[in-house]
Design a protein that fits this description.
This protein is α/β, with parallel strands linked by helices. It is 23% helix and 39% strand. Helix 1 crosses helix 3. 34% of the residues are buried.
């Protein structure tokens, strides 16, 4: 499972001009299920993200997790995180999970994050989405599990 995590002051996702998900201070999580990924890996990724200490403490150091801050998460599927650019100029996406499996693992990941007590909203798997965010810091972290 692969994720790009951005600490945000706010983020939203829209489909056809209609907002379908948003969060205030917290995390925008762009996530891609890769071939061979399992529900256990999705759970492990959710637990890792929930505990990442990337929010400022009272001294201004990155020492608090989203669980500590009470922030929310916006989880958006993004199969392009599986891009292979090693050959030519057109990325290949064959490392991404098949669409049905990708959808299932994406939904499982979002549910796992919510089950950890993080208010979680999502985008729409497979849709052409417009994502807006205000990156806080900026703090952007790449995770591969």
């Amino acid at each position: 499972m692969r994720a790009l995590i951005q600490r945000v002051t706010r983020a939203s996702v829209s489909v056809d001009g209609t907002m379908i998900g948003q969060c205030g201070p917290g995390l925008l999580v762009l996530v891609c299920a890769m071939q061979g990924d399992t529900e256990a890996q999705a759970d492990q990724m959710a637990a890792k993200i929930a505990k990442l200490r990337i929010f400022k403490d009272d001294a201004g150091r990155m020492n608090r997790s989203i669980l500590d801050t009470g922030g929310g998460a916006l989880v958006v599927s993004q199969f392009t995180l599986a891009a292979d650019t090693s050959r030519g100029n057109r990325p290949g996406f064959s490392a991404a999970a098949a669409p049905d499996e990708g959808r299932r693992l994406y939904q499982h990941f979002a549910a796992s994050l919510a089950a950890l007590g993080i208010p979680t909203e999502t985008g729409e798997f497979g849709a052409d989405m417009a994502v807006e965010l205000v990156n806080d810091g900026p703090v952007t972290i790449w995770l591969d599990l």
